[in-house]
Amino acid sequence: MHLSTFMEQCNSMGASDEDAKVVYLRAFAFSLACKAKTWLQSHPNKSLNTWEEVVEKFIARFFPPSKFISTKSAIATFSQGSKEPLCETWERFKALLLRCPNHNFDDAAQLYIFNSGLKP
After folding, report:
1. What pLDDT is stored for residue 100 in this prediction?
2. Which member of 7, 14, 22, 119 has the greatest number of CB atoms within 10 A?
């Protein structure tokens, strides 16, 4: 969620895709606090050279495989609550997808999972 919000804020500056990655690298440290800032500062200078490396290592540290598997499983087995309105069900499903940005479910799979989890 932090990465998504951070990138959304940076993208509001209107930079091109390649320039945006430079902005991400320069501004990311300012978006962090506490444990996350300590984590970033623990890397030797110049050891994170690309935005992709930062994202990969950030996700590995703060979204470990066990959490990934748990969240991806929650998406794959999604179902509507017994008295949950459709609009709340949709919001909950979207929130699950946001909690696991690297879930790798394409749009068709997401639609199938959501539809399959709906009550008649």
Report:
1. 85
2. 7
